[in-house]
Amino acid sequence: MRSRALLAAAFVALAAPMAFGQAQSGQPTFKSGVDLIRWDIRVVDADGRPITDLKPEEIQIVEGGRQLPIVLFQRITEPAESYVDAALRAVTAEVSSNDAFPRGHLYILIFDQQHITTGNEQRARLAAEQFIRTRVRPSDRVALFAVPGPGPQIGFTADKTRAIAALGTIRGYYQRLAPTAFGTIGLFEAHRILQGDEILITNTLERLVDEGAADLLGLSDAGGGGGSAEADLSAAKRLLRENAQSVVNQSDAESRQFLQRLADVIEQFKEIEGRKTVILFSEGFFQDNLSRELEDVAAAAAESYAVFYTFDLNRRAGEISQAFASDTVMGSEISARIAPLGTLAVETDGMMILDAASRTSEALDTIADQAQDYYLVGFTPSLQARERPGSYRRVTVKTTRPGARVSARTGYVSRVAATPADRRRAIDSALQTPFVQQSLKVDYTTYVMKSPAGGHRVVLSLNAALPVRSADADKADVVFVARDVRDGRVVASGSDTIALPAVANAGAALGTGSWQVSFDVPAGSFIMRAVVREPGGLTGSADRRIDVRPLAGPDIAVSDLVLGSALGGLPVRPRAYSGDGLSGVIESYGRTGVQLEGLDVKIELRRADGSSVISLPADLQQPEDDTDGVRRRALFLLPLQSVAPGNYLV
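^ that's the sequence the OP posted. Answer follows.
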């Protein structure tokens, strides 16, 4: 009878016994339950080029003169190849690892309808449409908001058509002039009046008198009615200040509402990892009484990795609404109004584009051309920050590398203690995010074999880098969802916990936690996402494509190759000691025993270059009756005494 050969492959790492149990280095250990602060920073050389080989010991984060300990450090960059190729390779690899997944750009476009003059939004809308249409790639995601409403409220989406269509609903309705009992007063005038600008007060009174408000101000007959001209002027100034105060109160209330809504918009993305480019279109507002609200926006941006690029939409040419304002006053007003836009840009390590109305498209192109090359730094917050969660703490970031320059935001926020609802919400968000989460390294693989009931059994084996357990926290959450690639239907899901490691890995801040689960699925192709969240809030996730072949058809089918050693079975990455042995099993399935009689199963250990190290026949077991046919196992044991440590293919 003709023999049939079975082919299967798996990678295995062989290590010398002395490589294990090495002494710990001076690396700080990350213990569970700590509210670790994660920050995005850029580091460039003297020529402005990103530095790609920075080490954590070369970064210093200083708060109040004290250096904060850095326990996590990773570089985020764009793939050198196309996003599609990198993503496809990542989901189909032997082991799915979140550090192999590419990331696109995350854009948040926000139109400050409250502070854009009617008509001024049109050019910005057209530029935004061009930007979305031509510069947002399939790998990118864009969100669009009009603040305050009504207007679009679209979270991250790859549907560019939807975002472009929503741009047409955006309107500007800012009014620079406010009606009062004495006539029209400009918002800038009102602020300057309250600041005691005597020249502006005198000029405003003269203008109001010319416009017919003399009687209301008591200035129509200075010196008459028994009062002196000086007393009448003083009373008029008092009335003017009172009206200016009303105008400022209303203006501040509207600006405060905008900033509060802006902070809410940014904060909703805090569970989605990745540096987010916030493009804010506005003509600005007066920040005299809004320092707290501006700091709240900066705090929300720090939590969400958001960087503000503020677009100044003010028109420098005179407008009808400013017919009585001189060029000098107009220039002063614009400078005052755009000051908070500059503040948001500086606080978040962004940039303000001056006079953007005339060059919006060019500025957006510059932003799109920026490469995603930055570092995520995790550090322990100060005692003061932990005692006052939610408060904005200012820090200084330095690098010890000669000639290097750090670009970072100005502060951070220590989060309020999470509730069970917050934990569930964070996990749900991680399952839905456009890109995988990379705060915790997650590696996993799957084994497909026949279940006892005759279906298809998938075994998921996962490793995650996790903080060391503490008395208050000893478990991490793990969730997985598998969906059919054809219609997105959920075919399997589950949740559990992973025991946190007792010690950190040698030379590392984190240890390793392992987890396995099995579930049955029909034949088909599926996309799986696995999410791990440690008690302090750090999350890691990875995606994987699983192709399940029919195992009960008329032809011979085989399971995945399962390797094991003294270090355990069904591993994520098979690993063995060089002086130990490597065992394995592979199953074949058929309708009848006759189909499986002529099997020829050989096992070969190869080096990375393809050369053979060991080759031997497997030990074929007798066929066994199955629920819908016959199965036959092939067992093997590879001796490794003479094999040098390294990576091999079985």
